[in-house]
Design goal:
The structure is a homodimer of 356-residue chains. Chain A has 356 residues and is an alpha+beta fold. The first copy, chain A, has nine helices and 19 strands. The two termini of chain A are 36 Å apart.
C-alpha cells in the first residue's frame, strides 16, 4: 500500500470532501481514490474490508439486530474546467463536490468516528456510476457477491439537499417506428412519407397527461417524452422510415412489465422496439428501519424522480432511500458545488441516527 | 490523341450506346470517355470542337437562321454490380444504358450522320451531372463561356421514354426549426420539448394540398415533403431543438422567390433556413423552335417533374426540353436498361427534324 495517497479520516467533513474531490476520479480512473479509501478503512481496525475492482466494501460485525448500508459512488463526470475544487465562504465549488464526494465524505466520517454504531453498518464505495450500466460497480457486486448486500435498509448518499428522497421512478426507452414507401421527391405522390406519419406519434405525446400517484405516502410525477427523432434518406427522397425515441419515466407503483404494456397501448398501431428498461423502487418508508431514519432526519421526505442505484437494493429486497448533501439539480453542471452547512448537517444527523 | 479509346461513330446507335457504356465514367472519372468523344468529333472534320475540363462542345457553323443545342452528360452514378452492359433480346441492360449514354449515342450519331443539318447545331457532352452541383460541367461552362450557349432551342437527351418532357419543376429545401428548453427527462416538466412541437409542422405537411397548375399547356404537380427530421441530445434529456428538412418541388409558374415566400407563409411561426434553391423552367412549347420539334416527334408532350439541366438553358433565355431514350423511373436503379426500339426511334425522329 506504499505510494497510495494518504487519506486522513480524522479531518473534518469539509476538508475530507475537498481531499476526495482533488483525487481526480473521472469514470474509468477510480483506482487512486479507491486505493486511498481502502487504505484508510483498513487502518481503522474495526471494519472487515473487501475490495473488488475499484469497489470497496467495509462492514462492522457487532451482532446488532439490524444492519444498514451506506453507499456512494467514487467516480465523477468528466472534468469541465472545474477541477480541482476551490473553497468559497459557505460552499465548496468544483467537480465532485455535489455529485458525490460530499456524500462519500459523510460515510467515511461515520466509518471512522462511530466504531460502535447502534446498527451494524455496511459501506460501499463503488466505481462506474456515471457511465453505461455495464461498468457500474454495484451492479457487478450484486451479481458476484449478493451476500454483501444483506441488510435491513440502505441509504444512498446521492445529493438530495439533505432531504430524504424515497424510492425512485423507473425508466423505459422505446423506439416508435413508422414505415412508408420511398420515392423521388419530385414525384412524391408515388411514395408514402414515413416522416409525415410521425405527426400522430408526436400528437399523442402532446396529449399525454402525466400520472402523479402517491406511493407509500410520497407523490411521484411521471413523464412521457420524445428524446430523439430521426428519419431521412437524402435531400431528394421521400423517406420510408422514421424513428421516435420515447422515454417513459414511471412511478414505482408500476412494474417494468406494466410500464411496457402502457406504452405499447399508448402507441398502438406503430412498431415498438424496447431499448432500455429499469425498474423503479418503492420508497418503503413505512418499514421500521426507514421510518426510524426519517424520524431522526427530521424533515418531510419527498419522492425521488430520477432513477438511481436505490433500485438495485430494492430489487434485492432491501428498502433504500437517497439522502445526502448537495442540490441534485447542480449535479453534472460545470458550476456544481456543495454547501458546507449541508455537509455538516448530514454528518450530524446520521451520527445521531447511528448512536441515539 | 494516341492511346485514346477509339470511338467509331459509323456503328449503329445500339452498338454505339453499348461502347459508350462500357467506357466506365462514374462521376469524377469522365476523362477516358470525354477523350473518346472529343477524338471522334474532331475526326469528323465538319465541326468546330472545344474542350474544357471533361466537357466537350462541338458546333456546326453553316449560317443557318436557327441554332439548336443537343446536350448530354457523360457521367453515371456509381457501379452497382451492373457494369459492363449486356445485350438482351430487345434491350441493353446495365450502368449508363438508361441514364444517359443512350441519349449521348443519339447525339453522336447525328453529329456524324447529319453534316448539313437544316438548323445549326451545338453539341455538349459534359461531366459531373450526378453529383453536387459545383462539379456540373454545364454550370461551369455557363459561367465561363456563356457564348457557347447562344441558341434558339435546346434538347437535353435525358431519358423520357422518347416523349417530349417540357420544362422542369424548381426545388427548394428548407430546414424548419422548432426550439424548446432542455431538462432532465426524469423531471421533464421543467423543460419544453422541442420534438413535441414538430407535431404541428408535420401536421401542416399532412394537410398540404398540391397545386397542379397548367403552364404553357402542360400540367405540373407540386410536392411538399419532409425529407429529413432530426432532434435529440441524449436518452435522458428533453431536447431543445428539432429540425425538419422540407423539400418543396414547385411548378415553373412560380419563381424561386415566390416559392420561398410560399414556404415561409406555410410554416409561419417557425424558424426557416433555406439550404437549397433552384429555379424551374417553363416548357416554352409555344415558341416556334420548340413547336416544330414537338410536331416532328409526333407524341403528346408532358410536363417534367424532376429538376434537370434544362433550367440552366432556360435561365440563359434558351427554351429547352427533355427528350431521350430510356424510362426515367429506371435511372439510378441497379436494373437500368434501355429499349433498343427507343434508341432507334429517337435517332430517326431527330434526324427527321434536322433534315426535313
Amino acid at each position: 500500500m506504499s505510494g497510495m495517497p494518504s487519506l486522513d479520516l480524522s479531518q473534518d467533513v469539509v476538508s475530507l470532501t475537498r481531499t476526495l474531490c482533488d483525487i481526480e476520479s473521472v469514470s474509468g480512473n477510480e483506482r487512486a481514490v479507491a486505493d486511498a479509501v481502502e487504505g484508510a478503512l483498513r487502518s481503522l481496525g474495526h471494519l472487515r474490508v473487501e475490495r473488488d475492482g475499484d469497489t470497496v466494501m467495509a462492514r462492522t460485525e457487532l451482532g446488532r439486530p439490524e444492519r444498514v448500508v451506506l453507499a456512494g459512488h467514487l467516480d465523477t463526470v468528466p472534468v469541465n474546467g472545474n477541477w480541482p475544487t476551490r473553497l468559497e465562504a459557505d460552499r465548496l465549488v468544483g467537480l465532485g463536490s455535489c455529485d458525490m464526494k460530499g456524500g462519500d465524505a459523510v460515510a467515511l466520517r461515520i466509518a471512522a468516528s462511530v466504531p460502535q454504531p447502534n446498527r451494524d453498518l455496511t459501506f460501499f464505495f463503488y466505481e462506474g456510476e456515471e457511465v453505461e450500466e455495464e461498468r457500474n460497480g454495484l451492479k457487478r457486486i450484486a451479481a458476484k457477491h449478493p451476500a454483501w448486500f444483506d441488510a435491513d435498509f440502505a441509504v444512498l448518499l446521492e445529493p438530495t439537499e439533505a432531504m430524504v428522497e424515497g424510492g425512485c421512478q423507473g425508466t423505459l426507452r422505446v423506439d416508435v417506428v413508422a414505415h412508408g414507401t420511398r420515392a423521388h421527391s419530385a414525384r412524391s405522390w408515388r411514395g408514402d412519407n414515413a416522416i409525415h406519419k410521425a405527426a400522430a406519434v408526436l400528437q399523442r405525446l402532446n396529449d399525454y397527461e402525466p400520472r402523479r400517484p402517491v406511493v407509500d405516502g410520497l407523490q411521484y410525477h411521471e413523464g412521457l417524452n420524445a428524446v430523439g427523432i430521426h428519419g431521412g434518406v437524402a435531400g431528394n427522397v421521400v423517406p420510408d422510415e422514421v424513428r421516435v425515441s420515447v422515454n417513459y419515466r414511471f412511478a414505482p407503483d408500476r412494474s417494468p412489465e406494466e410500464a411496457e404494456a402502457f406504452v405499447r397501448e399508448y402507441f398502438a398501431g406503430y412498431d415498438l422496439e424496447v431499448t432500455d428498461l429499469a425498474p423503479g423502487a418503492r420508497p418503503g418508508l413505512q418499514l421500521p428501519a426507514a421510518a426510524a431514519f426519517v424520524e431522526v432526519i427530521g424533515r418531510e421526505p419527498r419522492a425521488k424522480m430520477g432513477w438511481t442505484d436505490v433500485s438495485r437494493f430494492s430489487a434485492l429486497g432491501v428498502p433504500a432511500v437517497n439522502y445526502g448533501p448537495g442540490d441534485p439539480l447542480m449535479a453534472h453542471t460545470q458550476d456544481e458545488f456543495v454547501q458546507l452547512a449541508e455537509l455538516r448537517e448530514c454528518e450530524e444527523r446520521m451520527v445521531a441516527w447511528l448512536t441515539g
